[in-house]
Amino acid sequence: MQTNEDGSITIGVGLISVGWMGQLHSRAYSNLRYAYPDLKLRPRLVHAADPAPARATEAREVLGYERASADYQDVLNDPEVDVVSICAPNFLHAEIGIAAAKAGKHFWIEKPVGRGEAETRAVAEAAAESGVVSSIGFNYRHAPAIEYLRELVAEGKLGRITNVRGQMFADYSADPRGALSWRFVRGLAGTGVLGDLMGHLVDLVQYTLGPIAEVTAVTSTVYSERPELPMGTGTHFAVIEDGVMKPVENEDYAGMLVRLADDAAAAGAVGTLEASRVAVGPRASYGIEVYGTEGSAHWDFERLNELHVSGGLGAEYPGYTRVMAHAGMGDFSRFQPGAGTSMGYDDLKVIEAKKFLQAVLGREQLNSNIQDALSAAQVITAAERSAEGRTWEASTAVAGTTAATRHESHTES
Fold it and tell me: For the chain, which domains are there?
C-alpha cells in the first residue's frame, strides 16, 4: 500500500479466477473512486490468475490488470499485491483462502468459504493466525432496504420480533436438461442448495435478527440425473440436449425451522427458511419477512429497492406501505440521487469492496468477516445433520460476527 501526495491510498489488488464473479469484483474495485471519492481509496489492479488463457488475456486487456498468470500462487507471491479477491469455484475456496492467509494477503472471498463447517473453520483459523482481514461475499446484506430493516429491528420499531420467513428461490436448474456442473457433485461442491443459496439466507437472518441457535431441516433432490457439463466449458445456467446423464449428488431443495439465540436482537423468535434451485416461476426471489408485535416488514431481491412495512396495530390504514430506497437508507445516496432511481446488483458489490478495504486500512469494521462465514457454515452443517437424522440440531455461538445481538436493540429500554 502506498500513500500518495494528495492523501489518497493506493492498494494493490490481486484476483484469483476471472469468471463472472471475478469480473464483478474487478468492476467494484474500479468504481470505488466514483461512489466514495471522500475515502480516497485507489485500488490498483495488479495481478490476476486463471488457468484458461482466454480469461488471463481478458484480465489484462479488458479488466485492466497489469499482469496475468495461470497459477494463483503467482498472485499470492507478488509483493505488489496487498489484497486478493478469491472468486474460484467453491471446491477451491478453502485451499486458496488458507494459502492467501499464509501469504499474509488480506482476502475477499466468495461464499461458501468451505464445503461445510470443517473447511470453513480451517480458513478462519489460518486468517486468525496470520492476522489478515477477511471479507465474505454475502452481498444481499448490503442492500439499503436491508440496512434499514436491521435498524427497524434494532430500534424496536416492529416491537418484539416473533417470527421470520425467508426464501431463496431460483430457477437456474428448473429445466431437467440443465447442465450437471460441479455444483451438483458432492466432492466438488459439498452440499447443493444448502451451501449455494441457503448460506446467503442464513447470513441475511443473522445480520438483521441475530444468531441462529437451533435448526431442524428437510431436503430433497428433484432431478436425480442431469446431462454432464465438462469442467470449464460453461456455467450452471447451461442447458444441454442429448448429453451423457450423470447422477446429481446433492439436494435441490432445503427447508429449515429455526430458533434464534437468547442474545439475538430478535431473541425468542422462530422461523421458516426455504431454498430451491429448481423452482418454476421465481427467477431470483431472495427475500425475508420479519414479524413483530407492533409491525412487520418484508423485502425481496427481485425488487431490491423496495421495503414493505406495515402500519402496525391501531394504524388508520392497516396493511403494508411500499417504502422506496432513498438517501436515508444505507449507502443509497452514493449511487443514486433520489428514491425511484434504482440501484443494481453490481452496486452491492461496490459497497462490499468499500467495507472490505476500510477494514484492511483499520477504519470501520463493517464488513462481513470469516467469523460470519463460520457461523453460517455451522448452521448449514447442522441442517445437514438434521435432514439425515430427522432431529433438532444446535449451532454454537461464534465470537466476532456482525450478527445483530440483543445489546443493539432498544426494545427493552
Answer: 2-139 (3.40.50.720), 141-344+357-408 (3.30.360.10)
